[in-house]
Amino acid sequence: MTQSTLMPEPFEHIQFTVEDRVARITLSRPPLNILNIAMMCEISAALGSLAQEREIVAIVFEAAAGSRAFCAGVAIEEHVPETVFQMLDSFHGIFRQLEQLARPTIAVVEGSALGGGCELVAACDIVIAGERAHFGQPEIKLGVFPPVAALLLPRIIGEKRAKELILTGEMIDAAEAAKIGLVNHVLPASDLPRKTNEVLSRLRELSATALEMTHKAIDLGNNRTLDDALRDVEDIYLHELMKTSDANEGISAFIEKRKPVWRNR
Fold it and tell me: Among residues 12, 119, 131, 256, which one is catalytic?
């Protein structure tokens, strides 16, 4: 397959290419690659264009050269009542598409993967991280929680450690992330391209159809699909959590650059 960009218009916040049976989505909103609604819609459009690309054996997520983070999370300024429904729908749409595509996904992580960035890492099948990478779910410090992480992290790293990370907002380094199973490989930053190409070379030797069916079979081992579980979590998040005083106070305090004053209700 020759290199191509499948969308007729160029993207503003990501780079998207398909070459030699591999799709690459490069987060390109420097310096921190924070996901806003526009950027998430671009990722969805890129993934949507892969639905008919039957030869794809892998989808790679990485940050543009010069970025200070893989992804430092979702834009807090869009986490307000006027846009929170659209923001959550746009973000969760990415994970629903990945589940539907059922192709191997690889995250190549340099710098920090926080909040939504860490959730994207958790959703990927293979994670290749630089030694200086850091991971965390700091949402609780804003009075909210990470819906995707709440579903995926217990499956990946075990319930006890997942609860600790989500409930405390703790940040961990790449070595710890590998130890608990969030990351597959930790290498010096200069070795990340080599390791990524090594993994991709193995996948390119395989049948895309077989990879898709195998991915679906593995997912069946979970009692519920991510799509089904997300519906229930979204209901709690949007119709219960976001109606609390503390959730709105946490978001406002972050935007206003002040310490939140919790009312515990």
Answer: 119
User: In this predicted model, what pLDDT tens digit does every residue of 173-215 receive, in sequence order?
Assistant: 999 999 999 999 999 999 999 999 999 999 999 999 999 999 9
Q: Please report whether residue 236 resides in a domain.
A: no
Establish if 160 belongs to a structural domain. yes
Flag whether 20 is in a domain: yes
**Catalytic-residue membership of 198:** no
Q: How many domains, in total, are found in the chain? A: 1
Q: Which of 9, 55, 139, 176 is flagged as catalytic?
A: 139
Instruction: Outline where DSSP puts E strands in 117-174.
Output: 126-130, 134-136, 171-173
pTM, whole model, 2 decimals? 0.92
Q: Which residues contact 128 (CB under 8 A, 6 or more apart)?
A: 106, 107, 108, 109, 183, 184, 185, 187, 192, 195, 196, 199
Residues linked to residue 113 through DSSP beta bridges, in sequence order: 71, 135
CATH of the domain at 121: 3.90.226.10
Model pLDDT for residues 44-76, shown as the tens digit of each residue: 999 999 999 999 999 999 999 999 999 999 999
> Annotated catalytic, 119?
yes
